[in-house]
Design goal:
Helix content of chain A: 55-70%
Shape of chain A: globular
Order of helices and strands of chain A: HEHHEEH
Distance between the termini of chain A: 26 Å
Largest interface: A-B, 34 and 34 residues
Structural class of chain A: alpha+beta
Number of strands of chain A: 3
Largest sheet of chain A: 3 strands, antiparallel
Radius of gyration of chain A: 15 Å
CATH architecture of chain A: Orthogonal Bundle
CATH superfamily of chain A: Winged helix-like DNA-binding domain superfamily/Winged helix DNA-binding domain
Strand content of chain A: 5-15%
Oligomer: homodimer
Number of domains of chain A: 1
DNA sequence: ATTCTATACCTAGCGCCGCTATGTGTCAAC
DNA sequence: GTTGACACATAGCGGCGCTAGGTATAGAAT
C-alpha cells in the first residue's frame, strides 16, 4: 500500500507538516522522517534528501531554530523548535490548506 | 480576503482540481479560471500563465482531450474533456490528497 | 470611429524545490 | 569487521508556477 504521493503534494505538505510536528515539541530530522511515516500510516515516506533542505530553508526563514545536542547514546543530533514566526506561519499554512481542501471537496461533491 | 495561497499548494491542487472540474463536464481554459475562483470563494485565483501549461501537460499525458469550437458569440474556444485515463488519475489524485489531508489533521489534532 | 473591457488563447525566461545519488561518521549487534 | 540503523549533509537534474509579455475578437462606451 505504500504507493507514493505525487511530488507536488509532497512539496505542498512538507512545510505545514514539519511546522505542525515541531509545534508538538522539539524534534530532529531523522525522527521527523519516522513521525511522518507513522502519522500517515506509511502513505508518506519522505527522503532525507528532501527533508534536510526543508529544515534548512525553514531555519533560514526564521520559522524554526536549531541547536546541536548529544543523546545518551552519544549521537549528535540537531534539534529544531518552532519560533514565534513559525507559529504564525503554521496557522497561515493551515488556513491555506483548508481553503484548497474545501474547494476540492466542493468539486468532488 | 483574497490572500493568495502558496505556490506549492497551487502546484499540488492544480491537477486534481482541473480533473475534477472536467469530470463535471466539458469546459475551456478561461471558464476554468472563473470556476476555480468561484468554487474557492476567491481564495484561489489562478493565472492564465499557470493554467494553460497545466492543460497542455494533462493533454500530453492523455488525461484530457481537446477540441476547438466556436461559440454563438463567434469566439474560438478550446474545449477539454476528461479521458478514461483522466478519470482514473482523478481518483488517484483524490486518494493522495486525502492521505495527506488525514495526516495533517492528525498532527493538527 | 475609436477606445476600453472582457474574453480567449499562448509562450519564454526565471527561480524554487523535490528527487536521486552520494558522501561522512557513529553505535550496536553478530 | 561487517552489517544495519542512526544521523547529518549537498550537488545536479528536472519539473512547474510565476512574471511578463504577445495575439486576437466581440461588445460597450465615448
Amino acid at each position: 500500500m505504500p504507493e507514493p504521493v505525487s511530488k507536488e503534494l509532497v512539496a505542498a505538505s512538507s512545510k505545514p507538516l514539519v511546522l505542525a510536528i515541531l509545534a508538538r515539541g522539539e524534534s530532529y530530522g531523522y525522527a521527523i522522517l519516522q513521525e511522518v511515516r507513522e502519522l500517515s500510516g506509511g502513505r508518506l515516506d519522505w527522503t532525507e534528501g528532501m527533508l534536510y533542505p526543508v529544515l534548512h530553508r525553514l531555519e533560514a526563514q526564521k520559522l524554526i531554530q536549531a541547536r546541536w545536542a548529544t543523546s545518551e547514546g552519544g549521537r549528535r543530533r540537531k534539534y529544531y523548535r518552532l519560533s514565534h514566526q513559525g507559529s504564525r506561519a503554521l496557522e497561515s499554512e493551515r488556513s491555506d490548506w483548508e481553503a484548497v481542501d474545501a474547494t476540492l471537496k466542493a468539486v468532488w461533491g
